[in-house]
């Protein structure tokens, strides 16, 4: 359960922001009385449920816990879109007011305020509805070819299937994960990479819902690295549980895979924030590659793209990451570059390729608008240069 000070601060902030939305979209427009009442009732309910989204995990009744989480998380997405569109509307009205004051043109503010308020409300609902269906449907398969230098002939066509950021938890359960596993198993992977943020909750709460991972099937097996959300959820317990499911966990270490006579090094690091939870989990790409043979392809699994700079200096050829969700829903993907070097897709950092998976599930609001979930199928091919 979140600390009381956090909840008080969060609730106060959310209350102020909901009042801002109401004062700008409801009070500033001459709506019918029933519209005003309906609008304010919705905002009050949304205000109350925002902190409840963090508290629902503590409810003992599973049905009540899941229902509360569903409603609270969904409203969180609607609130987010309403807030952004209200801000955009106010900026637009401010610009128009400035142009009107400078007599660039004459504006009808009564009509403009009502139409833009209606547009903001409609836009938030459209984003939420479309985003909901995009979030709940099975992730699409993205196929990528990655050209590696000095790739042995027998590794040409080596296939890695990556899944990331599923976030099994309040609204993602066993059925959702089973569909992902079934799709992954149709891709004939040579290895499966799970790049963190698999869960949002304790082993005691979610072990039944992560059981489908035991059915993952690949020639060289499945491999996992921790994400930041594993550390919020009891990482040490989850590491043991994931091992029990038959998945190899890589904690600043590597394995050598022999594929038709050729060697490939697969390494994994703990999340870049892990050292703040356990001293012995400090993320270290150099330690992960220590003792690996020279002149063979080296692939790193690292939850956050932030690991890429150190991965490149350590001598890796390819890094597979997640964490960003590609922004998950508009407009947050435009803010991801403030914290991460890459948002989604394939990128080059000197001699290192970095692929960032948009996430195979979602976190928080069941909403994906403008950033679809994905299962990534990466095929190694020889570089032309």
From TrEMBL:
Annotated ranges, domain Calcineurin-like phosphoesterase: 158-326
InterPro entries cross-referenced by the UniProt entry = Calcineurin-like_PHP, Metallo-depent_PP-like, Metallophosphoesterase_sf
UniProt-listed Gene3D superfamilies: 3.60.21.10
Could you tell me which Pfam families the record lists for this protein? Metallophos
**Keywords, in A-Z order:** Hydrolase, Membrane, Metal-binding, Transmembrane, Transmembrane helix
Is Transmembrane one of the keywords?
yes
Q: Which residues cross the membrane?
A: 34-56, 68-97, 117-135
Which protein is depicted? Metallophosphoesterase
Give the taxonomic lineage as stored in the record.
Bacteria, Pseudomonadati, Pseudomonadota, Betaproteobacteria, Nitrosomonadales
């Amino acid at each position: 359960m979140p600390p009381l000070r956090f909840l008080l601060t969060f609730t106060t902030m959310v209350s102020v922001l909901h009042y801002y939305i109401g004062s700008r979209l409801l009070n500033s427009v001459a709506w019918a009385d029933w519209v005003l009442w309906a609008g304010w009732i919705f905002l009050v309910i949304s205000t109350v449920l925002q902190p409840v989204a963090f508290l629902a995990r503590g409810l003992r009744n599973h049905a009540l816990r899941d229902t509360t989480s569903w409603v609270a998380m969904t409203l969180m997405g609607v609130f987010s879109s309403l807030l952004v569109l209200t801000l955009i509307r106010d900026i637009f009205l401010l610009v128009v007011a400035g142009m009107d004051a400078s007599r660039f043109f004459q504006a009808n503010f009564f009509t403009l305020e009502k139409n833009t308020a209606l547009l903001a409300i409609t836009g938030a609902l459209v984003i939420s509805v479309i985003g909901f269906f995009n979030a709940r449907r099975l992730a699409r398969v993205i196929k990528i070819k990655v050209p590696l230098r000095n790739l042995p002939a027998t590794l040409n066509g080596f296939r890695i299937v990556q899944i990331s950021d599923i976030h099994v938890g309040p609204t993602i359960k066993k059925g959702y994960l089973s569909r992902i596993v079934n799709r992954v198993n149709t891709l004939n992977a040579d290895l499966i990479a799970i790049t963190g943020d698999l869960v949002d909750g304790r082993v005691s709460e979610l072990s039944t819902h992560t059981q489908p991972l035991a059915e993952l099937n690949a020639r060289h097996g499945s491999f996992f690295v921790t994400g930041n959300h594993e550390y919020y959820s009891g990482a040490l317990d989850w590491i043991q549980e994931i091992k029990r499911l038959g998945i190899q966990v890589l904690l600043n270490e590597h394995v050598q895979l022999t594929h038709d006579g050729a060697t490939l090094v697969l390494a994994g690091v703990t999340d870049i924030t892990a050292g703040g939870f356990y001293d012995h989990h400090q993320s270290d790409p150099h330690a992960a590659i220590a003792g690996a043979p020279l002149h063979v392809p080296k692939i790193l699994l690292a939850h956050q793209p932030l690991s890429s700079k150190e991965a490149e200096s350590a001598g890796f050829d390819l890094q597979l990451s997640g964490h960003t969700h590609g922004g998950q829903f508009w407009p947050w993907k435009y803010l991801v570059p403030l914290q991460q070097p890459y948002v989604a897709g394939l990128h080059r950092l000197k001699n290192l390729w970095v692929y960032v998976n948009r996430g195979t599930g979602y976190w928080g609001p069941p909403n994906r608008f403008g950033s679809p979930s994905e299962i990534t199928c990466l095929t190694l091919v020889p570089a032309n240069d």
